[in-house]
């Protein structure tokens, strides 16, 4: 599973950093209206991005089913918070236009280590969710502070 995850992250990194498609996705995330006014069809890029996300979810579902050797339509319930936390901790801006696949991978590693550590010390599921939420809030506050600092530097 780890090797498949590394392959998917590697492919995503190459697409986002080395192709026009990836740069266009960052541009749309930063300012969709500017991309549209530049003459690009943002609907095509957004549709392709959602299609790629669906394909990645399919890969993740197959890997998760293989790990548990069973299938259920509600198997992934509760993992939304972990996914959002990994992306935000990895440095992706909630305002869009900034982030990386490597950062998200590192964010997922942090969330995994945090969750496993809390399990090892005997924390309940509710306490784990509260701590994960607190980490997300801290990451969002740090992102907001970084954006303000960047705006002040840009205004000078």
Provide the succession of SSEs: HHHHHH
The termini sit apart by: 48 Å
Compute the CA-based radius of gyration: 18 Å
Give the uncertain stretches in residue-range form: none
Q: Count of DSSP E strands?
A: 0
User: What does the overall shape look like?
Assistant: globular
Q: Supply the helix-strand structural class.
A: mainly alpha
How would you describe this protein?
By secondary structure, this protein is mostly helical. Helices cover 79% and strands 0% of the residues. It contains 6 helices and no strands. The protein has helices at 2-18, 20-37, 42-68, 80-89, 101-120, 125-155. Helix 4 crosses helix 5 (101-120). The longest helix is centred in the last third of the chain and has 31 residues, at 125-155. The radius of gyration is 18 Å and the shape is globular. The N and C termini lie far apart (48 Å). The relative contact order is 0.09. The model has no long low-confidence stretch (mean pLDDT 87).
Any chance you could write out the topology, listing elements then pairs?
Elements: H1 2-18, H2 20-37, H3 42-68, H4 80-89, H5 101-120, H6 125-155
Short structural description:
This protein has 156 residues and is mostly helical.
Which features would summarize this protein structure in a list?
156 residues, mainly alpha
């Amino acid at each position: 599973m780890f090797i498949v995850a590394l392959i998917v992250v590697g492919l995503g990194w190459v697409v986002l950093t080395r192709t026009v498609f990836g740069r266009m996705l960052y541009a749309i995330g930063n300012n969709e209206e500017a991309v549209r006014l530049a003459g690009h069809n943002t609907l095509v890029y957004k549709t392709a991005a959602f299609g790629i996300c669906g394909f990645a979810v399919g890969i993740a579902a197959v890997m998760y089913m293989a790990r548990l050797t069973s299938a259920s339509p509600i198997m992934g319930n509760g993992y939304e918070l972990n996914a959002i936390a990994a992306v935000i901790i990895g440095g992706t801006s909630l305002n869009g236009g900034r982030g990386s696949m490597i950062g998200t991978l590192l964010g997922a590693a942090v969330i995994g280590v945090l969750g496993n550590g809390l399990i090892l010390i005997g924390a309940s599921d509710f306490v784990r969710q509260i701590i994960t939420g607190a980490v997300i809030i801290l990451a969002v506050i740090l992102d907001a502070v970084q954006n303000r600092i960047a705006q002040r530097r840009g205004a000078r």
